[in-house]
Amino acid sequence: MRHALAEAAQAALTGDVPVGAVLLGPDGSLLATGHNEREATGDPTAHAEVLAIRRAAAALGEWRLSGCTLVVTLEPCTMCAGALVQSRIGRVVYGARDEKAGAAGSLWDVVRDRRLNHRPEVVAGVLEEACSAQLTAFFRAL
Ligand SMILES: [Zn+2]
Prior knowledge:
Blueprint: H1 2-12, E1 20-24, E2 30-35, H2 38-41, H3 48-60, E3 69-74, H4 78-86, E4 91-96, E5 121-123, H5 128-141
Parallel strand pairs: 3-4, 4-5
Antiparallel strand pairs: 1-2, 1-3
Bound molecules: zinc ion.
């Protein structure tokens, strides 16, 4: 999560909301990282999680991320939760909860919806205070 926080700090350099993600292989090795690049690239789908998923899949040479873990500083939104289910990822670890738009336990729980055919394990609230503080500081400075 500390690596994800450092990745999130990169997003703020381009005026992007500081959200960072790291994607680990089944053996715990680092496959990919990502941070929000919506402002940097003008791409509405350029969330940290989506970028990390795309890069990890490219690194592995396949779309299935079975057994992999995504660590992200903010609870995934509906788009990212959908992408995580589509990638068949094994585990999602996040820091700050997003009561307004979170789709991994707060507003929705897309990743653990029993109607879907894949449900990753979810670990919430890791380094939650540090993750929340980083976001709060960004929005306060606007
Ligand atoms: Zn998202």
